[in-house]
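BUG: 3D viewer hangs when loading the predicted structure for this chain

Environment: internal workstation, default settings.
Expected: structure renders.
Actual: progress bar stalls at 90%.

Input used:
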Amino acid sequence: MKLLHKMKHDFVEIFPPTLFFFIAFSLVLLTKRLILSEYGISWTGFGSAVVGAILVGKVVLLVDKLTFLNKFAHRQLIITTTWKCLFYFLAAVLLQYLERIVHLLRKHESFLEAIRYFVTETVWPQFWLIQMWLAVLLFFYCAMRELVRAIGKENVIRMFFGASRAK
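Structure tokens produced before the viewer hung:
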């Protein structure tokens, strides 16, 4: 029963960031698909939106366990948001890199060979574009999360979905 409770708790924690990033990455991939279709290039990348969202959801879950992440919890929201976003971003980039290297290790004989292949075969403009989008999306996610923390979940739900505000 304790394991089931832990799994439910982790699911409740991982679901919001995973859903947010799935929608965000799907929009980015849809944009890419529409741009490529103008040049007659067919492309589907739905799977990468799912994998990317799960990856970032895991990153959020893991990084949230770090105690020093709340070092600036009582400062202005911009400081807290930027601090947390930095760690989420660094962890996400590291996890992406390690995931890619582990995949390449299966194809190549050594760690250095896998790194060499990664460096030479990566399309760097696309890599940096993805990292740029990831940073922006993480910042937006962190800002909204800190705002909800400051205002209170119930107040945010009431503000968005409560009775209409008459003037």
